[in-house]
Amino acid sequence: MNYVKVVNSIEDPEPEGFLTSAGTQLALCCPDCGHGYSHVQAVYTLLGGDEGGTLYRGSHLVARETPYRRDALAVRVLGECGHRWDFVFQQHKGETFIRIDMLEPDKSGTVPKERVL
Ligand SMILES: [Zn+2]
User: Fold this and answer.
1) pLDDT tens by residue, 45-71
2) How many whole angstroms from 67 Cα to the centroid of ligand 1?
3) Which of 2, 32, 69, 95 could form a disulfide with 49, with the two C-beta atoms 3.0–4.6 Å apart?
4) Is residue 117 part of a domain?
């Protein structure tokens, strides 16, 4: 997989910034433009510092680190709008923080095949 650059990190995302109503259920929406159609692509481990260093079960290692001491789990999402982002679940002193790392947009115009079947 090619390295994908983080262009903006949203440390304290408001729920209305990444959730939308889809009939009777909540659905993800693009944190950048609000578009309501998206696709989960992959799950990654972001390596932390001295208290990290192991992959979350079922995840890949992505060529990025998290600035925290513990590892983080990232769920990569591609919006049909062309934006892509990682939902990051960051362990920190017994709490799990959520942040959104906006990634450089996909310029290929196609949905990347990041899933392994
Ligand atoms: Zn978007």
Assistant:
1) 999 988 888 888 888 888 788 888 999
2) 26
3) 69
4) no
Mean pLDDT calculated for residue range 33-52: 92
Q: Is residue 98 part of a domain?
A: yes
Q: How far, in Å, is the centroid of ligand 1 from the Cα of 41?
A: 15
19 by DSSP, 3-state: which? strand
Distance 85 CA to ligand 1 centre (A): 9
Q: How many domains does the chain have?
A: 1
Q: What percent of the chain has pLDDT over 70?
A: 88
* Residue 56 alpha carbon to ligand 1 centre in Å: 28
Task: Note whether residue 42 is domain-resident.
Answer: yes
Our CA dihedral for 52, 61, 67, 113, rounded to 10 degrees, sits at -150
Domain extent at residue 79: 6-103
Is 51 within a domain?
yes
CA angle 70, 99, 94 (to 5 degrees): 40
Residue 95 CA, ligand 1 centroid: distance in Å: 29
Give the largest CA-CA distance in the chain: 44
% residues pLDDT > 90 (the chain): 65
